[in-house]
Amino acid sequence: xxxxxxxxxxxxxxxxxxxxxxxxxxxxxxxxxxxxxxxxxxxxxxxxxxxxxxxxxxxxxxxxxxxxxxxxxxxxxxxxxxxxxxxxxxxxxxxxxxxxxxxxxxxxxxxxxxxxxxxxxxxxxxxxxxxxxxxxxxxxxxxxxxxxxxxxxxxxxxxxxxxxxxxxxxxxx
Length: 173
What we know:
Blueprint: H1 8-24, H2 32-35, E1 43-47, E2 52-55, E3 64-68, E4 74-81, E5 84-88, E6 94-98, E7 102-103, E8 107-109, E9 115-118, E10 127-131, E11 136-143, E12 146-151, E13 154-159
Antiparallel strand pairs: 1-4, 1-7, 2-3, 4-5, 5-6, 8-11, 9-10, 11-12, 12-13
């Protein structure tokens, strides 16, 4: 049977092709807005496991590029595709991980130079610890230029500019 362009089935075929076309040619970056979590991008998260495979693309068919070996390390989510998150670490390396390997718990890392952990949120306050580069901890709250943090069993205040894992004007409760 031959369908003429004026036939109702012809019009239905055109509609189906038009609707399916974008999905067939969709790339991971372009569809990230439609198929992700709906949470803001970029945002910070942390690693859930001591061993996290970082892949070259969003899926198990993509090769593992490297493996993170630091549980609770902060990462920045910069893109999403279905259950996959493109992350960036504090040194700028990026790749794709499955969402189940991330947690919303907030953490920080001292990135470049030693930082002072203060007893209260003031530059003149007593320094209770000196945090060396690559020391990680938990962010409890942030407001203004200070964040209340915990490193091992020590709690104190850290200037947000001294750490990586929180945005300049982000409030954390």
